[in-house]
């Protein structure tokens, strides 16, 4: 009987807590959303699976000595995984749309307003009972507004690792919900006549300009905002591999093997942070709420800036493309194109929207550098 009792006490059922059960359900829901609805499946599926692994009683996978613990320590706490993701993103990104129309950089910057507005909102939430965010935590939460998962993970791992799981889930969840969140904001702030505006065809961009662009961006960043250099540097390296045309093997590796392997481990490591004690609290509710607010404000700021630019621009600008300034590439650009076609079946905005979209990738990295400089 004593042996049976010992065996029972070492089973998962005997050590199961309600919080663990709930987090296993959360993990299963993330997997369901990834498979059934294709919501950011590349990240939500491994994150959900990591959450299940982390909440298995006595397995210790997310504790010191466990597999997920070491994956987290090696790739997330050091910031290596998000930086390698940025290498792959740079190799997959074509900056031609923004180089052909440099004014789109303004829209990419305007959409980051949601980040800094949410920073103020996170600090203000300290007045709510049960909510208490430090400046570092508020900055990490605010970056959700950039709709850039790797940037959110990188910044939170550096300044607020205790909130990493909730921030990552919020960031990728809202990125997946771009087709749901953005259209109502876009329609609210624009008239049908504005949504029907056709933009002029983009000019071709020379190979030399494409090669010089990542080098110039890196040099400017290094001089003006060194804290953003890790993210921007890896993005520029990946883009230079792509545009140089002489290292196709390296470019293909960055776009495929490297980013795919890192994505698996990144998702598992983030999921490992979704333990019941870390996730089931009032702060998590505040993070999810602020993330949604940040996303809405970023979308609205991009649209309003496009409307303002249209007043002074010789060439017509469709305000819808401002919504693509959040760096959910290419989903937000596709949403813009869909809304444009709904207003005018002949209005194709995809390539125009890709300009502020890829500019937003740089914008979110720069915003993360600014926040890191402010709080560190």
Task: Walk me through what this model shows.
The chain is mainly alpha-helical and 376 residues long. It has one domain. Helix content is 71%, strand content 0%. It is built from 20 helices and no strands. The protein has helices at residues 2-9, 18-36, 41-54, 67-76, 80-92, 96-100, 104-110, 113-124, 135-142, 149-159, 164-176, 178-189, 192-195, 207-224, 229-244, 248-271, 276-279, 282-312, 331-343, 350-375. Helix 12 packs across helix 18 (282-312) and helix 15 packs antiparallel against helix 20 (350-375). The model has no long low-confidence stretch (mean pLDDT 91).
- Helical run tally: 20
Class computed from helices, strands and strand pairing: mainly alpha
**Helix share, percent:** over 70%
| Low-pLDDT segments | none
Structurally, the number of domains stands at 1
Instruction: Give the helices and strands as they follow along the chain.
Output: HHHHHHHHHHHHHHHHHHHH
Main location: membrane
Keywords: Cell membrane, Ion transport, Membrane, Sodium, Sodium transport, Translocase, Transmembrane, Transmembrane helix, Transport
Subunit structure: Heterotrimer of an alpha, a beta and a gamma subunit.
Subcellular location: Cell membrane
Short description:
By secondary structure, this protein is an all-alpha fold.
Structural topology:
Elements lengths: L1 H8 L8 H19 L4 H14 L12 H10 L3 H13 L3 H5 L3 H7 L2 H12 L10 H8 L6 H11 L4 H13 L1 H12 L2 H4 L11 H18 L4 H16 L3 H24 L4 H4 L2 H31 L18 H13 L6 H26 L1
């Amino acid at each position: 009987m004593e042996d049976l009792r010992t065996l029972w006490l070492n089973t998962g059922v005997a050590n199961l807590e309600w919080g663990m059960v709930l987090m296993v359900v959360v993990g299963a829901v993330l997997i369901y959303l990834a498979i059934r609805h294709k919501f950011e499946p590349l990240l939500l599926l491994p994150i959900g699976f990591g959450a299940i692994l982390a909440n298995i009683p006595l397995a210790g996978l997310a504790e010191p000595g466990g597999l997920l613990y070491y994956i987290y320590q090696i790739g997330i706490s050091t910031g290596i995984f998000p930086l390698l993701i940025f290498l792959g993103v740079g190799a997959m990104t074509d900056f031609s749309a923004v180089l052909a129309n440099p004014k789109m950089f303004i829209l990419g910057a305007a959409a980051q307003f949601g980040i800094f507005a949410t920073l103020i909102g996170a600090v203000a939430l300290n007045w709510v009972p049960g909510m208490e965010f430090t400046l570092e935590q508020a900055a990490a939460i605010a970056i959700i507004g950039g709709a850039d998962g790797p940037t959110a993970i990188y910044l939170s791992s550096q300044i607020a690792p205790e909130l990493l799981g909730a921030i990552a889930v919020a960031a990728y969840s809202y990125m997946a919900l771009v087709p749901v969140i953005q259209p109502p904001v876009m329609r609210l702030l624009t008239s049908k006549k504005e949504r029907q505006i056709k933009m002029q065809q983009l000019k071709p961009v020379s190979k030399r300009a494409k090669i010089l662009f990542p080098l110039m961006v890196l040099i400017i960043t290094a001089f003006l905002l060194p804290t953003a250099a890790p993210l921007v540097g890896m993005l520029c390296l990946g883009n230079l591999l792509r545009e140089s045309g002489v290292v196709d093997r390296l470019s293909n590796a960055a776009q495929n093997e490297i980013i795919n392997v890192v994505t698996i481990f990144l998702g598992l490591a983030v999921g490992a942070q979704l333990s019941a004690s870390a996730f089931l609290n009032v702060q998590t509710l505040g993070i999810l709420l602020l993330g949604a607010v940040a996303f809405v404000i970023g979308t609205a700021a991009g649209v309003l800036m496009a409307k303002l630019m249209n007043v002074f621009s010789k060439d017509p600008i469709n305000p819808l493309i401002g919504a693509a300034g959040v760096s959910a590439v290419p989903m937000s650009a596709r949403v813009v194109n869909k809304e444009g076609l709904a207003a005018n079946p002949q209005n194709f905005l995809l390539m125009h929207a890709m300009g502020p979209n890829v500019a937003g990738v740089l914008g979110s990295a720069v915003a993360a550098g600014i926040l890191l400089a402010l709080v560190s």
